[in-house]
């Protein structure tokens, strides 16, 4: 493929990013309103409005600031946390080497969100009523690359590859293809890895999804 063809392919993949989770959040807000939870509904609407503005801005661009991608992730997690009967805990860990450069570091738009969505809706599904769910997002620098891992403490991967690929509404193949384009054909390491974590006796401890993104700072 020529550079122009790759650019057009990348733009097409970006255009497929359909933030359907916003529609789901709106439905949840409507349900809360019908139950008379006015204060909670207003709180959700304010956060959803902020999330919507960020998503609208992001999906119109080839690359966005890492701080915006993190903020989109945080807002989405907070909305989903409220939908769990007893919530869940989460952490976002950022490499100290990145903390002062989040606004200058670029990533593809909504590259984290589908993996976070899978972790919450599938990984933590069995802990929805217990409050024992845990989600961790860790962003580090590894040899001129951003290495991002999303880990949950659920039951591991219980879906087929096809179901996992389609479960978020945003194809995991879409993520992989965009990463291939911006990394180039010469990069040999696996760009997207989704696996079940197990202890020494083979018992599932959760799911970990990791991706590698070129370290682009402008």
UniProtKB/TrEMBL annotation:
Source organism, top-level taxon: Bacteria
GO molecular function list: kinase activity
Domain (Signal transduction histidine kinase internal region): residue spans on this chain: 9-85
Keywords linked to the UniProt accession: Kinase, Transferase
Descriptive protein name: Histidine kinase
Organism this protein belongs to: Kordia aestuariivivens
